[in-house]
């Protein structure tokens, strides 16, 4: 496919980044994953807002008209349903030194890959998943969408080895989020989710769940949630851009609720679908 690198659209095989790029040497970089359906960015504004937050946390001074770049990238790749990956590193220092010069030119990279339209799929075609719960080994700035993803990769690996699809993480007795998703649970008709802090990523899909729940008058609460509450919940869901909301059927091999996709999950999925249809 065609990728975007530092102002140019080039075939992926021709895109090259220096070995002295700080993204490569130090993970001195941030990213976004943005779904496009029929060539149109979904919740693009929210993703760009979070990107500005990540960039400013790293003090990377970069103002860009992102929408034009990403629309063009998707168009050059034939449009349709794709997930766009956008990464910005602090740039190429020419040598390996942790100290950086404030006037470096950031490296900007974007590519895209096909995804299925989870909203067109229909609830019957969405499979529930299994998760494990494990210790959150990450740093304390998880609100930054940074590329240092080793802890996330290790917990995902742990999930795979246990025959599960995602790992939820827990820190000091409080559930944080999934390796690449946010967490929700339902108890007695109330939706619960961990509150925003620097221990979790402010998911764009999480925000949409909250918006849609509020609009529909479904009670919801942002709170500290324990492992016991999770196991005792009627429903558990995860959310992320490319997966929307997925029902969790099993946590650490133990059945959640009735063991199937819950009624409130189905309602939320339908709310997502309607929201998505209004945009298309
Ligand atoms: N990850 N929490 C973590 C740690 C994440 O990596 C992600 C998304 C989310 C959900 O955020 P959003 O709803 O904005 O996609 C929460 C992306 C998809 C990834 O790394 O591939």
UniProtKB/TrEMBL annotation:
Cofactor requirement: pyridoxal 5'-phosphate
Catalytic activity: L-valine + 2-oxoglutarate = 3-methyl-2-oxobutanoate + L-glutamate; 4-amino-4-deoxychorismate = 4-aminobenzoate + pyruvate + H(+); L-isoleucine + 2-oxoglutarate = (S)-3-methyl-2-oxopentanoate + L-glutamate; L-leucine + 2-oxoglutarate = 4-methyl-2-oxopentanoate + L-glutamate
CDD domains from the UniProt entry: D-AAT_like
Keyword check for Calcium: no
A GO MF term: L-leucine-2-oxoglutarate transaminase activity
Listed GO biological process terms: amino acid biosynthetic process; folic acid biosynthetic process
EC number of the protein: 2.6.1.42, 4.1.3.38
Keywords of the record: Aminotransferase, Folate biosynthesis, Pyridoxal phosphate, Transferase
UniProt pathway: Amino-acid biosynthesis; L-valine biosynthesis; L-valine from pyruvate: step 4/4; Amino-acid biosynthesis; L-isoleucine biosynthesis; L-isoleucine from 2-oxobutanoate: step 4/4; Amino-acid biosynthesis; L-leucine biosynthesis; L-leucine from 3-methyl-2-oxobutanoate: step 4/4; Cofactor biosynthesis; tetrahydrofolate biosynthesis; 4-aminobenzoate from chorismate: step 2/2
One annotated Gene Ontology cellular component of this protein: cytosol
DNA damage keyword on record: no
Pfam families named in the record: Aminotran_4
Domain of life: Bacteria
Function: Acts on leucine, isoleucine and valine. Involved in the biosynthesis of p-aminobenzoate (PABA), a precursor of tetrahydrofolate. Converts 4-amino-4-deoxychorismate into 4-aminobenzoate (PABA) and pyruvate.
Similarity remark: Belongs to the class-IV pyridoxal-phosphate-dependent aminotransferase family.
Protein name: Aminodeoxychorismate lyase
Organism encoding this protein: Marinobacterium lacunae
């Amino acid at each position: 496919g065609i990728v975007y690198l530092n102002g140019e659209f080039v075939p992926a095989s021709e895109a090259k980044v220096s070995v002295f790029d700080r993204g490569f040497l130090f993970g001195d970089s941030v990213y976004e994953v943005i779904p496009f359906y029929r060539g149109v960015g979904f919740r693009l504004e929210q993703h760009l807002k979070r990107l500005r937050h990540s960039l400013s946390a790293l003090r990377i001074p970069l103002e860009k008209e992102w929408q034009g770049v990403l629309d063009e990238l998707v168009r050059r790749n034939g449009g349709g349903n794709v997930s766009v990956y956008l990464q910005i590193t602090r740039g190429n220092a020419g040598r390996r030194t942790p100290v950086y010069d404030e006037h470096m030119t950031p490296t900007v990279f974007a590519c895209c890959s096909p995804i299925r339209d989870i909203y067109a799929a229909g609830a019957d075609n969405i499979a529930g998943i299994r998760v494990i719960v494990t210790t959150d080994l990450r740093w304390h700035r998880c609100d930054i969408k940074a590329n240092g993803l080793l802890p996330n990769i290790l917990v995902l690996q742990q999930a795979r080895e246990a025959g599960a699809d995602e790992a939820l993480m827990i820190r000091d007795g409080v559930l944080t989020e999934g390796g690449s998703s946010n967490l929700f649970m339902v108890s007695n008709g109330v939706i619960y989710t961990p509150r925003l802090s620097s221990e979790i990523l402010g998911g764009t899909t999480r925000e949409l769940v909250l918006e849609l729940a509020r609009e529909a008058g479904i009670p919801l609460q942002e709170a500290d949630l324990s492992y016991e509450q999770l196991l005792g919940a009627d429903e558990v869901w995860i959310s992320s851009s490319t997966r929307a909301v997925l029902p969790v059927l099993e946590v650490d091999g133990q059945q959640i609720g009735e063991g199937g996709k819950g009624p409130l999950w189905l309602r939320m999925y339908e709310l997502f679908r309607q929201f998505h249809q209004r945009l298309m």
